[in-house]
Amino acid sequence: MKTLPCVQTLIALLAVFTPDASAVPKPNVVIVFVDDFGWGDPSCYGNTLVQTPHMDKLAREGVRLTQGYVAAPICSPSRCGIITGQFPARWRITSYLQTKAGNKACGQADFLDPKAPSLPRMLHDAGYATAHIGKWHLGGGRDVLNAPKFKEYGYDLGLGTYESPEPAAALGLKTTPWGKEIEPQQVARHDRSRWMVDKTLDFLKQNRGNPCFVNLWLDDTHTPFVPSAEQLKAVQADGDSPQMANYKAVVFETDQQVGRLIEGLKETNTLVLLIGDNGASPPFERKRGGGLRGSKLSLYEGGTRVPFMAWWSGTTAAGVVNEKTVICGVDLLPSLATICQAKLPEGYASDGEDLSAAIVGKLPVRAKPLFWEYGRNNTSFAYPKDAMHRSPNVAMREGDWKLLVNADGSDAELYNLATDRNETNNVAAENPAVLKRLTESALQWRKSLP
């Protein structure tokens, strides 16, 4: 008798999460980490400004989580959380990495310590071919010339951008992606995502027969938005300001490249995770955040809650909208250890937890609280200009409770996200016991940091 597809899927799911998992082929894993991609940027999360049909299709065929977070509201610490499976403040990365003087002013390191736990190294040790393609921003560039090479973190291949120890020639060896200059061998700004997707598919083909891990970290949705004339024609931009038209075009183009990636992965055993690296940046952040308070540079929900989708053909349950599980970038390392049959790094102190069940479509409940810290100086550039969206610099989520407080204990705010996702009603006064308990926990965590 022929086995029904749904039964085959159930058998595969059970096999992955049983002691006999070693008999199951290890999947490829591609983490598509999209720069400054707000919670409301994909149309499946509510964007009405521009449609993202390929991301929507990915969500229909896989899992879309509505309570997905990253470890920081800005790029470098958010990326640190993905790589290490730990809160980035452990590694003295609490803002974007920049010049040595700027890093010192922020009280932070110049690069991610290669001794930190490493997701690519963990998977490399488990037999994976590993690659980083795209934005890095965990050390290198500007005047930081001693940043570790990609190999020290466990990558076989490293094709970085300007803010990395090993920029790829096609992405510019010395040229910033936001500048107008372009080197002779450099691809145009509007063509970067296509180039990165091509290199990802090439790496998978070159390593066919071996499980592969790729960090595909796209950056076209970071300002300035620089689409081509052809990309502008692809979106309805009549009557829009030039900035809005450019925004629509780069989001639509990013979606097109995600579609090319998924098409190239058909008939392969590949898990794709599509995640924003932090909340939407100005301009239009209120329109791009799905109504959430805050934006990039803020610990309110609009700064740390991001699109979070999983697609794994034949394994993820199709069309699941998970509104229950609270998942964060720091959970990827322990979750992928299970999915990829890898051994956790020796001595690993996990800030995340194994939520692999959520990635394949189940609805687990988070057990551990989440903590955030952002910013250790008063540089005006590094905070939202609108006072309503500038948050205290420490935050914590436990269950439905969200606390924000300054490191000195001032300006505590408390929200129940089950009833107030947009953080409009501070209920600190009505819940003194909860406020006291969470404040003590958050400040104790903050004091434990380097």
Describe the protein in words:
- This protein has an eight-stranded mixed beta sheet with strand order 5-4-6-1-7-8-2-9, with helices on both faces. Strands 11-12-13-14 form a four-stranded antiparallel beta sheet, with helices on one face. It has a two-stranded parallel sheet with strand order 3-10.
- The chain starts with a helix and ends with a helix.
- The chain has 450 residues and is an alpha/beta fold.
- It has helices at residues 5-16, 53-61, 75-84, 100-105, 119-125, 192-206, 229-233, 242-264, 285-288, 301-304, 332-339, 356-359, 432-447, and strands at 28-34, 63-65, 68-69, 129-134, 157-160, 212-218, 270-276, 308-312, 320-322, 327-328, 370-373, 394-398, 401-405, 413-416.
Provide keyphrases for this structure.
alpha/beta, eight-stranded mixed β-sheet, 14 strands, disordered N terminus
